[in-house]
Write a structure and sequence with these properties.
By secondary structure, this protein is mostly helical. The protein has seven helices and no strands. It is globular and about 40 Å long.
């Protein structure tokens, strides 16, 4: 699930990053997680929207990241990068750089990139369907 992949991502990268870059990655992952859980309706089909709404109505404030796999991240990146990061978070240059790396790695599975994340790569390869809600 997205939640597990995002939890694992900074740890996968820790050994190769400076402290400040690592903090920027953590900040960007927090913003991405918040955005995914707050604005998921923009790209969900009717079935997935109902699953998300049911979990959200039951009190799961992080329903999107609990229900869906990392492959569901890319449809949200336009809104995340164009609105949340630039306008809402008013990100500086270093945070914007981290945004590109984090979103590129989490949405592409981290496979074949310089910032390869084994956990996200494995989560994206996992083809088992998500359990119905």
């Amino acid at each position: 699930m997205i939640d597990q992949a995002l939890d694992a991502f900074p740890g996968d990268q820790r050994g190769r990053l400076s402290d400040s870059t690592y903090r920027n990655y953590e900040d960007m992952i927090r913003l991405l997680r918040d955005s995914l859980n707050t604005y998921p309706y923009s790209s969900l089909d009717a079935r997935d929207s109902k699953r998300w709404q049911k979990a959200s109505d039951a009190g799961d404030e992080e329903a999107f990241c609990h229900l869906f796999r990392p492959q569901e991240i890319p449809p949200h990146l336009g809104e995340f990068l164009g609105y949340v990061v630039v306008r809402k978070a008013i990100a500086g240059q270093e945070l914007l750089k981290a945004a590109g790396t984090v979103t590129g790695t989490t949405s592409a599975g981290g496979c074949g990139t310089s910032s390869r994340s084994p956990t996200i790569c494995a989560a994206n390869r996992d083809s088992r369907p998500c359990p119905s809600g």
